[in-house]
Write a structure and sequence with these properties.
Rossmann fold, alpha/beta, 2 domains, 6-stranded parallel sheet
Length: about 220
């Protein structure tokens, strides 16, 4: 393990890509099909779940579909079209990633979204040549709520947690990563993912866009 090398562990949805609105649209889409009116607590809960867990949520709680897989397919059909045709990079994100790549800084993407979504969305928006390995929690069988996820990814990337940064828009991911010894950057997307105050509670740095970040802090000179 190269304990001296800096690793930038980058969330996709809401951090690199402007996709949070589409995910909320997908939730409303399946909620309408289930005849459900989601409460704020339920929306907050959904924000922390993987796609499989969302499928289970709507099937078990509202009887939608023959099983969780049916609900997952409904969401998949909605979202893959969005990633393929309408996804876009958040302000400054691609420029930041290109600069990190040019500086030789190690990077990976860690996301709760399926690998297919990452490949399609990040490919459409120009990130794939620069961000390094794409890691979906579905593949590794862990969630971003679990602090053990982050050292696991660091080890996979050959870097030490104490030299690694998580960039994320969700307060719960920042909290878990910080518990695991990583340094953290909160990138604001929506209050549903984390208010500025919530991000500040769990992140060393908080920004509305990548343009606000001091690149030298991450070894990008």
């Amino acid at each position: 393990m190269n304990t001296q090398e800096t690793l930038l562990m980058l969330d996709c949805d809401g951090t690199l890509l402007d996709t949070i609105g589409a995910w909320h649209q997908a939730e409303r889409h399946v909620a309408e099909r289930a005849g459900a009116v989601l409460t704020k607590d339920e929306r907050d809960e959904l924000n922390t779940l993987t796609l499989e867990e969302v499928g289970t949520f709507f099937h078990d709680r509202y009887g939608l579909g023959a099983g969780a897989a049916d609900v997952m397919q409904m969401i998949n059909d909605f979202m893959i079209d969005f990633y393929r045709t309408r996804s876009s990079a958040n302000p400054g994100a691609l420029e930041f990633v290109k600069a990190a790549h040019a500086a030789g800084v190690a990077m990976c993407v860690l996301s709760s979204s399926p690998l297919e979504f990452l490949q399609v969305g990040l490919g459409r928006c120009g990130f794939l040549p620069y961000v390094g390995e794409l890691i979906s929690v579905e593949e590794i069988g862990m969630t971003k709520r679990n602090p053990a996820t982050y050292p696991f990814v660091c080890e996979r990337m050959g870097c030490s947690p104490d030299n690694s940064w998580l960039f994320d828009d969700s307060w719960y991911a920042l909290e878990a990563a910080r518990k695991a010894g990583l340094r953290t950057v909160g990138v604001f997307s929506t209050d549903l993912c984390g208010t500025h105050d919530q991000l500040a509670e769990h992140a060393e740095v908080v920004a509305d866009t990548f343009d606000e970040l001091d690149r030298a802090l991450f070894g990008i000179l």
